Fold these 2 entries.
Entry 1:
Amino acid sequence: MTEQFGLFVQGRWTDPPEARRFETKNPATGETIASFVSATPEQARAAIEAAHRAFPAWKETPAPQRGEILLRAARHLRERKEEIARIVTREMGKVLAEGRGDVQESIDFVEYMAGEGRRLVGETVPSELRSKFCLTIRQPKGVVACITPWNFPTAIPNWKIAAALISGNTIVFKPASNTARCAVEVVRAYEAAGLPPGVLNLVTGSGSVVGAELIAHPKVRAVSFTGGVDTGRDVYVRGAQGLKMVHLELGGKNPVILMDDADLPLALDGVLFGAFGTSGQRCTATSRLILHEKVYEPFLEMLTKRLDSFRLGDPLDPKVDMGPVASLDQEQKILAYIAIGKQEAKLRYGGAKVTGGAFDRGHFVQPTIFETAHGTRISKEEIFGPVLSVIRVHDYAEAVRVANDVDYGLSSSIYTRDVNRAFRAMQDLEAGITYVNAPTIGAEVQLPFGGIKNTGNGGREAGSAAIEEFTELKTVFVDFSAKLQKAQIDAESAA
Ligand code: TXE
């Protein structure tokens, strides 16, 4: 009997009897994981109303007390880490070590945000007038919508939810449909922590129905969205109609630049992890290797040799290096890009769906490497799969030119032993994140995360920057002179 979940609204799990439902599947085996409600616009509106009712009391709750609740949620996640990691792996397909990493990132971030409850810093600055005090305070926005993808099915929701909650907002959470079971675990942590009813609501269902309702509804004051660039653009345009704050975290086409003085064995481990970890389905995945001509052939030899011993299979098996891609949609999109690559570039490794035996039940794609000129589609468009485009360059200037000549700007990396060049690259690379002697992945929760160009619209998640996303800055003037003082006018005449 398939496990069945309802919506979480006003602190209760409700299962509307006539609801349309959808199921999630294990992308490695095809087994059904669980069944969920495909919510209607009315049900989405009920969740918005619940969040709206809960807002005044939550806003009044002192932020350190909100932090206590977050700490309890983090403890719940910590106690159930292994169980939740297995759900992540079964539903999304990343290997178990990465499933654990997903949950650990959630724990780290929720704990970090709990501490923000004792900060939420504003500024105090001098006034131009006597006996006058000027400061800023941070206030919540109100009801916020968190719309999330499937690739970090607990970490990305927690990035948004914990930052929104500590800031005093109430939430309607709409997860990606294919990882709805993971979303249930996210919500359960806050439920177990004693979050008051209505502060966090979960509405499962399609983006075009539930997501669209959340974006259009006048009581939703902010939308935090992570997903594909086309959907993100649509969300931005529609959110603009309501003059809402829309935070977008979209894709990447992240380069590793490998210079001729790089530590090649170190870079090998980094490129393998960056390109093929999570089957390449990270927004920060290394999808381009910009390789100096002097080390081009030796490095590619090393890379393909290591891939020969790479193990694909059930991601719950600890010996497996790479699991399936997340869904049939993903498989088809990636295979379509591989077909394009075969037309416009030279296939160096892989390049096919993995078939035979147990593989036939899942969505497995070989780790794939293309040697390509810069400018081809596979060298410029986000593939979001285990496909690495290798581009030969003859010096640093060309490497940076190639690295920057894409529409995205999320993560970037350089391997070099030349300290001057490393610092040069920190300035030159057009991206929100630059790594030196490490691959393009490896975010830490206490630092801002986000990118430039088509990667987003200027905001940053994580770190203390996350608070900016979910708060309004109020400026306060306190005049204790007991007389009317006029800024600009009195200050001018006193000078
Ligand atoms: O994302 P979508 P998908 C990229 C990646 C991937 C592609 C498609 O290239 O192959 O996007 O993935 C909700 N209004 N990334 O289809 O459609 C949707 O239900 C409001 C990169 O999964 O963008 C889900 O909750 N919401 C990315 C969320 O948006 C809508 C991570 C993301 O779905 C909506 C994921 C609508 N009209 C995908 N339509 C990254 N940067 O890491 C859909 N949604």
Entry 2:
Amino acid sequence: MCGVFGIYTPAEGPDRDVARSTFFGLFALQHRGQESAGIAVSDGDRVTAMKDMGLVSQVFDEGRLSGLAGHIAIGHTRYSTTGSTVWQNAQPVVRHAGGRTIALGHNGNLTNTAELREELRGRRVSMRSTSDTEVMAALIAEHESGDLGEAVADAMGRIEGAFAAVVMTERGLAGFRDPDGIRPLVVGRLGDAWVLASESCALDLIGATLERDLEPGEMVVVDERGARFRKLGDRPGSLCVFEYIYFARPDSVMHGRGLHEVRRRMGERLADEAPVEADVVIGVPDSGTPAAVGYARRSGIPFGEGLVKNRYVGRTFIQPDQALRERGVRLKFNALRSVLEGRRVVVVDDSIVRGSTTRKLVQMLFEAGAREVHLRVSSPPIVSPCFYGIDMADQDELLAAGRTIEEVRRRLGATSLAYLSLDGLEATAGPAEGFCRACLTGEYPTEIPADMRLAKLRFEPAPVPVEIR
Ligand code: 5GP
Ligand code: MG
């Protein structure tokens, strides 16, 4: 998980504040990562970067933005999946080689980092961080041609796994997406400027129009000669289905589909697959709301707001004390007794990962007077870890891995439990072939090296299939 953004405006045009556009682009992508934020700009001669730990609005203020003048910029918000949460691993990563500078921001997770690090070490290329992003940046920066497009194309052929990245030099901007298109990246226009972003909601905020998704295995280079697209490989594409289920914002359009609409339909389908007699349907805000609306609409059971979410919960830097921690989920949610008391409640959420939040939520609903709590999940059970950049636990931490639905229900304390089926997912999100669904099926679109599998699967040798419903 991470958000990336890039913008190129012609050097000779009116003075445009690309750092400010990037700030707002990142602000729209804040949900993709809250650990650190950074922006790099170029004025045609020099690349300047500024990055720090924290939210976009904590890292940048007017003063810092005004120090970032230029006509090319990239930005990044980070949620770590390889490498720890420290300043050295914040992005954009900046590297100097052969008399020029590159800056790079990456969303995804490489699966052959160790091998490439060894090779680069052999070539006496120095590395400062533990992140896979630095490996990517080094491959591009150290490329012998000195041509951004050539360097990116060669690097794309060497790295494996999931990646959607933006990279810039003093003179150009490039974006590229892994051959399976696991992580998203869209192309937009803002007048004569070109814009790249993880999600279309970032384009909306700055007034840019969505041109299209960059395709799986496609790259684009923008410089004074204009934009040049090039497609490497012809794999069919396996967009992360979890982007559709949970991760991307509902107001983003991905692969031509509005995600609010997709999620609402998941909820409708769930109502068909797992109906129940009840008095009210509530969603777990915000991610469960669209599916809850769909469930209510289809079932005819009235929709209600039974949970209020504190909208300032992000990454809290102050740890709650022990007494507060035990109330855990109350930092984020409070239940509305007036909606719940004496009622049979359907509660819809988009996914269950470890189950710790959900268990406390169910308990909270009962404490607020719910007579029955029917949990409905608008995605199939998550049974296998993600190696492509979604922070999904070792397999032994995944609640549904190796458990029947009834065992999961008992652990969560719900009156009943049902998940959307894989068929239901296909009917609402789109054909299975278009998606990476490894977290739901254990089938990975790329090869996962044994040592990487071992690290995440060390307690269970193979994914255990789970019966649906
Ligand atoms: P759990 O019960 O597994 O602890 O939490 C389930 C909740 O976590 C759901 O509301 C779901 O929307 C949310 N969720 C799913 N994946 C992620 C994630 O990667 N990060 C965060 N912060 N929440 C997630
Ligand atoms: Mg949620």
